[in-house]
Amino acid sequence: MVCNRCVLYVERILKELAIAYDKVNVGEIHLSNELGEGKKQELGKHLQEIGLELIDNRLNQLIEKSKKLILELARNEVSPGEKKQKLSYYLTDKLHLDYFYLSSLFSAAEGRTIEKYFIEQRTEKVKELLVFDELSLSEIAYQLEYSSVAHLSTQFKKTTGLTPSQFKKSGENKLKALDNV
Length: 181
What we know:
Layout: H1 4-16, E1 21-25, E2 28-31, H2 37-49, H3 58-74, H4 80-83, H5 87-95, H6 99-110, H7 114-132, H8 137-143, H9 149-160, H10 164-170
């Protein structure tokens, strides 16, 4: 689950299936009771129908939690103090795991590094801000904590193959859904 709309869908499914839950957050469900295998499969089937996946093993939960934290940091949806932290320190602090261990698990599961995933998420946020056309490139660089406009532009071009200006001029909405990045 990557958005509040997903939370609403999941809550609706849980109610339809008469599954008791305490709360549903982005990326997680807190159930009141343990699910039997039949109910778990039924829930998984319903989630799959709306493009979500039931993740019930520890490794997958850790990867999903990592992705959620990376997304929040990449989109600048964290406290001012956390914005200044390096990605590795941020994840270590939040997950209480060694970064090299986490990085190895993430790369094996996702087929890309944590850093690449972070850059992809930041690039999607830049695209979003460019499409809305409310901020200049300098303002976007400042808002997303890039060291300079040149750094933002270079990273954007490496990721998309276009400069931010070319992206804006193309007129095509090339934004990806967050769960497809």
